[in-house]
Specification:
Helices cover 60% and strands 4% of the residues. With 469 residues, it is mainly α. The chain is elongated and about 120 Å long. The termini are far apart.
Length: 469
């Protein structure tokens, strides 16, 4: 089955995930039934291969609607009329036939609704089609297709609606993307919605073209705009000569390069096989500089491939490094937030520890008492006064003991501060692994600070009670 023959066998668009085998000829009766089903003249749940009464009635009604001789039989004229209304690429003379139908012709209205839905434009079942045709007109004007103009009538839109080639061959763009402009009728707050509609329109157009050339496309998904093109596009570019291929990252999406190649195929395929097509493309690439510039070339030379591979590797490493920096930056930010959230508590604790250190480091006032023997563990001290009296001066010794303990806490506090500053220094001066280790150590230092804070607070209360200053 040749490529152009596929255009005449469109019978499953909008149907429930049914695709005919493109390698097998479709019997005429099946084709009649399926096309009449698409135009809502018959249900498909009755005899596929039989020319039964329901099929004859549907053919009769179709013949009446389009104004051809009524016979109820699948004759050549009826087949031509069906092909003109249903196929994406109408037979020769098909557009003239459509132009001869009145705009309120029942068969034409059904065909218009079918085609609009294939382009992803919603059509309510019982509503007027003018609003949907207005949206279709806006999409054509946005793409700046040839022979389009502001104020086009519905009649002037029909060739674009029934011949897919008029759209795919007129798309403009470059390596960066498609060229389009918003119609004046589209307000600013509706532009994003319009861009989504334009994207669906281009995707569906590409899907139809891929299906016409025999690639696996589920046309039943055209209506909801979710047709999957990745597999078909990758296969399409795989069968393309190397020099005509875009970069790998662009081969699973609809690009301007795709429409450039499709347009070239439309001009050169006729009934040619893939080898003939590729040979023609190779010849054109050697002689047509403008076609070379319209696609991003990939060199065949080994050196160029190595350089290109090195660039891709470098870009990949840069992307990985950026991701790593972003992750570490996020980690540092979170750690900083944690430190700041705990800051008030830690600063109060540091104040107590430093205060304890200052009190502990003060010189003990001279006393008239002379210490003879003291036992810190049992808090028993024998003090000999200058007069020779032996007195138990527990309170004074308690004062001395507190001063000693405060001194120890102060020393620990300053050591703690030194360790914290050293950890911060390693955090900002060392590598990221050391930095993570430093964050852990800082956490441990804060635990030490909490313990010192409890001890210092307790001692400061005792010192205050005993007027230690």
């Amino acid at each position: 089955m040749h490529f152009r023959d596929l255009g005449e066998s469109l019978d499953q668009a909008i149907s429930a995930n049914y695709l005919p085998d493109i390698d097998d000829d479709i019997e005429q009766v099946k084709l009649y039934r399926r096309r009449l089903h698409l135009l809502k003249y018959i249900d498909r749940d009755t005899g596929e291969n039989n020319l039964d009464s329901k099929l004859r009635d549907a053919i009769t009604q179709f013949q009446i609607d389009v104004g051809i001789s009524v016979s109820g039989n699948p004759d050549h004229t009826t087949f031509f009329a069906l092909g003109s209304l249903v196929a994406f690429e109408p037979p020769e003379g098909g557009l003239e036939f459509i132009d001869g139908l009145t705009t309120n012709n029942p068969a034409l209205i059904k065909a218009i609704k079918l085609k609009l839905s294939c382009f992803g434009i919603k059509v309510r079942r019982n509503s007027n089609i003018n609003a949907s045709l207005h949206q279709f007109r806006s999409l054509l004007l946005a793409l700046m297709l040839p022979n389009t103009k502001i104020g086009m009538t519905n009649k002037e839109l029909l060739p674009f609606l029934f011949d897919i080639d008029l759209i795919s061959s007129g798309v403009k763009g470059d390596k960066k993307g498609f060229h389009f402009r918003f119609p004046q009728s589209i307000s600013r707050h509706k532009r994003e919605q319009f861009k989504d509609s334009l994207d669906i329109f281009l995707r569906n157009t590409a899907a139809i073209e891929l299906w016409l050339y025999g690639y696996p496309i589920a046309l039943s998904e055209l209506r909801n705009g979710n047709v999957d093109l990745k597999k078909a596009l990758k296969l399409f570019w795989k069968e393309t000569p190397e020099m005509a291929k875009p970069q790998s990252k662009y081969r699973d999406r609809v690009t301007y390069d795709f429409f450039v190649r499709i347009n070239f195929l439309q001009q050169n395929t006729a009934n040619a096989d893939i080898k003939t097509i590729n040979a023609a493309i190779d010849k054109k690439l050697k002689n047509d500089e403008s076609f070379k510039l319209s696609t991003e070339q990939e060199s065949h030379s080994l050196i160029s491939r190595i350089i290109d591979g090195g660039r891709r590797l470098f870009r990949g490493l840069v992307a990985v490094f950026r991701g790593f920096i972003k992750g570490v930056s996020s980690l540092v930010k979170n750690a900083t937030r944690w430190i700041l959230s705990k800051g008030r508590t830690h600063f109060i604790a540091m104040k107590n520890v430093i205060k304890a250190g200052l009190i502990g480091f003060k010189q003990i006032k001279p006393s008239e008492n002379i210490i003879v023997l003291s036992d810190y563990d049992r808090d028993q001290t024998v003090i000999v006064s200058s007069t020779g009296d032996i007195n138990e001066a527990k309170i004074k010794m308690t004062e001395f003991t507190i001063r000693s303990q405060l001194r120890i806490v102060g020393i620990k506090g300053f050591v703690w501060l030194f360790k914290v500053f050293r950890s911060y220094g390693s955090l900002f001066a060392a590598g990221w692994i050391r930095a993570l280790w430093s964050l852990t150590k800082i956490g441990e230092r804060f635990e030490e600070l909490q313990a010192l804070n409890k001890e210092a607070t307790k001692l400061l209360k005792i010192a205050e009670q005993n007027n230690v200053s």
